[in-house]
Specification:
5 helices, about 110 residues, three-stranded antiparallel sheet
């Protein structure tokens, strides 16, 4: 199934904060908890995320990427890498350096 940009953002954050909770995710993205709950449920259904219930509080679930979730992000990264490589191969070395410096200022 196709992932939305928002779902990809959630996957990236779950990857970066292995074991993040839905509540933490909703705060980081400034969205209502039910919105995150629905999004996470879809990601779980599609096999990208797994939930692990807290042993201390059964109401809390920690979120982790599955192998499939990791694969999807790897494919996405490779796509960005391939695109950047294609863009850079049409630039001179000096132009490529300038572009990298400009991106460095932006990000």
């Amino acid at each position: 199934s196709q992932l939305t940009i928002t779902q990809l953002h959630y996957l990236h954050r779950i990857e970066a904060c292995n074991g993040i909770t839905g509540t933490e995710l909703s705060k980081e993205f400034n969205v209502a908890k039910p919105t995150i709950t629905n999004a996470i449920s879809r990601l779980v259904e599609h096999g990208y995320v797994r939930k692990q219930t807290s042993s201390r509080d059964k109401r809390v679930s920690f979120l982790f990427l599955t192998k499939e979730g990791q694969r999807v992000l790897a494919v996405e990264r490779q796509g960005y890498y391939d695109y950047a490589k294609k863009v850079l191969e049409n630039l001179s070395e000096e132009e490529a350096e300038q572009l990298c410096k400009l991106f460095g200022k932006l990000f």
